[in-house]
Design goal:
With 246 residues, the protein is an alpha+beta fold. Among the domains are: 9-49, no CATH class; 158-246. It is built from seven helices and 15 strands. The strands form six sheets. Strands 1-2-3-4 form a four-stranded antiparallel sheet. A hairpin with a 4-residue loop joins strand 13 (178-181) and strand 14 (186-193). The radius of gyration is 25 Å and the shape is elongated.
């Protein structure tokens, strides 16, 4: 007679599970003791070792889990793009080490449905505008937004995403796009165009330099929005125009 009986509660590497039905040593139906109540068939050997994996156990930054579905972590030995984006999104929001370097990320969260990798990967892989050089953006539709979710996020080209820095943000002592020229004791404005820094002149105060930077940056955003008009969501295009007109 087996030492494993129906109703036994056994600890695994994904929490606890309950034996629902013992059929044989190589076929035991268990149910994980969490809100998902996922059931699976396992062997007595792996059950005794406590090596049964719960696909709903939140082992990614204490929040994310793999779920049950067709989307994988790797494909032919390489990390899939959807998993990479999902993992990095959770890392920004829930990794204390990242928050030490970038404190503002500690204010960001991911919607509960995206804790499940399968749900996120379904959204990501079926997004109409999702290309190799596109990035997930949570700020374009709602400036200052702190939540990653299907309602708040879009996929946009990386070169546009890098431009969407809050105009009220600061980099060190001075606003974005401004640095102090020590020798001449003036403020220099620069903007990045096509990955290259473009000089915009010297000014006697940081606010004026920042205004010049914003003007050039916004012109560039409009230019890029028009360039990508047929390759981004209509909502993204409209939001870029609104953004650049502020």
């Amino acid at each position: 007679m087996s030492d494993i009986q129906d109703g036994d509660v056994i600890k695994t590497n994904g929490g606890y599970c309950t034996v629902v039905r013992y059929i044989s040593a190589i076929k035991i139906l268990v149910e994980f003791n969490d809100d998902h109540k996922h059931q699976k068939y396992v062997t007595a050997r792996w059950l005794r070792l406590g090596s049964i994996k719960n696909p709903f156990y939140p082992n990614i930054f204490g929040i994310g889990f793999m779920g049950v579905g067709s989307y994988k972590v790797t494909d032919e030995g390489r990390t899939t793009k959807s998993y990479e984006v999902w993992h990095n999104m959770l890392m920004r929001c829930y990794d204390p080490n990242i928050h030490k370097k970038h404190p503002t990320y500690s204010e960001c969260t991911v919607c509960k449905e995206w804790y499940n990798y399968q749900v996120f990967a379904e959204w990501y892989n079926n997004h109409k505008y999702c290309r190799k050089d596109y990035e997930i953006d949570k700020d374009l539709l709602i400036q200052g937004n702190k939540i990653y979710s299907p309602e708040t996020c879009l996929m946009i080209p990386s070169e546009i995403n890098t431009l969407l820095i809050d105009s009220g943000a600061s980099r060190g002592k001075y606003p974005i796009g401004v640095n102090y020229h020590i020798r001449d004791k003036v403020y220099q404005a620069r903007v990045s165009i096509n990955g290259k820094s473009k000089y915009l002149g010297y000014y006697d105060c940081p606010d004026k330099a920042h205004e010049v930077y914003l003007s050039h940056r916004n012109e560039y955003i409009i230019e890029k929005a028009k360039e990508y008009r047929d390759r981004i969501d209509t909502k993204a295009f409209d939001a870029l125009i609104r953004w650049s007109n502020k």
